[in-house]
Specification:
Layout lengths: L23 E4 L2 E7 L9 E7 L4 E7 L3 E8 L2 E5 L6 E3 L4 E4 L5 E5 L5 E8 L2 H17 L5 H10 L2 E3 L5
Antiparallel strand pairs: 1-2, 2-3, 3-10, 4-9, 4-11, 5-8, 5-10, 6-7, 6-9
Length: about 160
């Protein structure tokens, strides 16, 4: 479960998470292993490792409230980004900044699991959206329809686009 932010008067404290620790969520078949949630950073950002099996990823979508940044730790993903003519093939060490209001989506096109470090600024809306995907996936036996995904996303300021546009 995603916790609420500390009160404004609460000072931020240092956060340390050892490798392999931290909250995890199943987000449409991609594991998010959180390094810091927005509730840990005064709502400034959240950061997680996305563990992306072959063929999985995120459908084309547009954030209205957050910017995202991706750093590829391992594997290879193909990313479509509004404003870039051809899909970008990102391998180990590649970085991409995806500003809000720009459609983007990705999928693992390799044979191995890809690992991405993903930053969301600010992060609370996405943290809550991903928690809702995880919860609904558990409730439905991981059979979320695109309509359900789009409805949850819309509640958090994210638009899911159809594959045709």
């Amino acid at each position: 479960m995603i916790s609420d932010a500390p009160p404004e008067s609460s000072p931020l404290t240092p956060l340390f998470r050892a490798a392999g620790t931290g909250p995890t969520l199943d987000v449409l078949g991609v594991t998010h292993s959180y390094k810091a949630m927005a509730s840990d950073t005064g709502q400034q950002f959240s950061i997680w490792e996305s563990i992306v099996p072959p063929g999985r990823g995120a459908p084309a979508h547009t954030h209205t409230r957050e910017d995202e940044a991706f750093y590829v730790l391992s594997g290879e993903v193909l990313v479509d980004v509004e404003g870039v003519t051809d899909p970008l093939r990102l391998g180990r060490g590649a970085f991409l900044f995806a500003p809000r209001h720009r459609r983007h989506g990705y999928r693992n096109v390799g044979a191995d699991t890809a690992r991405l470090l993903v930053f969301a600024m600010p992060g609370a809306g996405l943290d809550h959206m991903f928690a809702a995907f995880d919860e609904e996936g558990r409730r439905s036996g991981d059979r979320l329809t695109i309509q359900t995904i789009a409805t949850i996303a819309r509640q958090h300021g994210v638009v899911i686009h159809s594959s045709t546009g």
